[in-house]
Amino acid sequence: MPAMAATLPYTARDVGTPLAPRVRLRTLIFLRWLGIAGQATAIVIVFLGLRYDLPVELCAAEIAASALFNLTLTYLYPQTRQLTEIEAIVHLSFDIVQLTSLLMLTGGLENPFTLLYIAPVVISATNLSLPATLGLAGFTLACVTLISFLHWPLPWDPNEPIELPLFYLAGNWISLTLGIGFTLIYAWRTADEARGMQTALAAAQDALAREQRLSDLGALAAATAHELGTPLGTIAVVARELEREVPPDAPWFDDIRLLRSQAERCREILGKLAQHDAADDGVAAQRLPLGALLDEIAEPHRGFGVEIKIAAHGEGSFSVRRRPEVIHGLGNLIENAVDFAVTTVSIEAVWTAIEVQMTITDDGPGFDPSVFERLGEPYVTTRGGLQNMQGEGSDAAERNNHSGLGLGFFIAKTLIERTGGAVDFSNASRRGAVVSVRWPRVALEQPVLSRG
Under a CB-based contact definition with an 8 Å cutoff, are residues 217 and 286 in contact? Predict the structure, then answer.
């Protein structure tokens, strides 16, 4: 049973799906310097502090190679450079190889610093794609397996030699493998959700910006009409005087009459534009009865074979400010209801002295249980499934002959919550989807302050 999917006037080119960001060279260089400092400190403590036998020259050479690599990158490339995915994999693979070389010189899997293998995998999971991260994790596990068999003895007190049992080493390998796998999945999933939320929030802000641009255009049209009214009036007066002075049989009499009529027409058009802000657009901050506002929001969605019924009642008279967030948010919800309704969409608004509640109900198939719990999250959609339930050529099939990005509900919910409202989704007891929106009454009566 398909859900009432989310629709938007956006295409994949406008918004797109969330993509993994590139990692900056500066970040990897900084983390590598931290690793170099930690490795050098550990070598000094073990060799000079604990007096354990250690191939210090070879270990120092490994650390120096990492430092030289960092210095070379710093000299050749700008620090703000963003690495491609392949370049980032090469950098992280170098760090894994360098760590593997050090561990092979200092006990292999017996060395507790094998835990550091997790770091490159986490960096990859939070910045690169899943296939790249899985490949890097596979390479890391291969290195872990390699040092399990090929390594020098663990530096230890020669008077109290230590010999770890095979089962313990196998347990270390298993725990390290599970640790890499768990942190990989967790880090990638968390980063992917954060990227998706960031992209969807950007889409919500873009929707609000578009509404604001429309508001600005309305105000600009009114200002333009006011400023152009005076010069056009002067042109009309001069043209009228010329028309009276020039004889009717003059060769330019018709041109003068045309000039006057066109000037009058321009004045009429500008007069309508000047009145548009107060009569139709109301983009500034005028008030409207709630029922009239709902009728205006629903008007673009009429004429698709679905009847939209609106009922608004409550305690006393109630008018609201026309805000882009409310208009666009409710418009998205009504559009979705119309898309999946069979014959009727009902919109009921009820207000008290404290609260305003609005219910949008359609007689369609209702919300799909498979996505019900995730409604309101970005990129949740079942768009296209309803087409198979409608007859060929029907209005509903024609309305749904497009795909959605799954951002409509998210943007509507985000914009409504921006005004202090709350959105709930449910299925009707018999048939259809129900969207409930609640505001504190004061939230719709007062101007909504912008949030940075």
Answer: no
Cβ-based burial of 167 (10 A; exposed 0-12, middle 13-18, buried ≥19) = exposed
Domain 207-281 and domain 287-445 have a common topology: no
58-66's contacts with Cβ under 8 Å and 24+ in sequence apart are 58/105, 59/102, 59/105, 59/106, 62/98, 62/101, 62/102, 62/105, 63/36, 63/39, 63/102, 65/98, 66/32, 66/35, 66/36, 66/39, 66/94, 66/95, 66/98
Give the per-residue pLDDT at 255: 83
| Neighbouring residues of 64: CB distance < 8 A, sequence distance ≥ 6 | none
pLDDT at 37: 95
Contact, 319 vs 287, CB < 8 A? Answer: yes
- The alpha helices in 77-165, defined as continuous H runs, are 85-105, 118-127, 130-149
For residue 344, what are the β-bridge partners?
A: 307
Q: What pLDDT is attached to residue 341? A: 87
Statement: 287-445 belongs to CATH 3.30.565.10: yes
Nearest by Cα to 423 from 366, 379, 360: 360
5 is written with which tokens? 């999917």
The DSSP bridge partners found for residue 346 are: 309, 361
The pLDDT tens digits for 249-264 are 888 888 888 888 888 8
Looking at residue 182, its pLDDT comes to 93
Q: What is the pLDDT of residue 145?
A: 94
Tell me how far apart the alpha carbons of residues 201 and 410 are, in angstroms, rounded to a whole number. 9
**Residue 443 CB contacts under 8 Å (≥ 6 apart), including other chains:** 419, 420, 421
In the chain, domain spans: 25-205, 207-281, 287-445
Residues of the chain under the 70 pLDDT cut: 1-22, 196-197, 199-227, 271-286, 376, 378-407, 446-452
Looking at CATH, the fold of the domain delimited by 207-281 is given as Helix Hairpins (1.10.287)
Strand 319-321, strand 433-440: pairing: unpaired
Type and span of the H or E element at 358: strand 355-362
pLDDT value of residue 357: 92
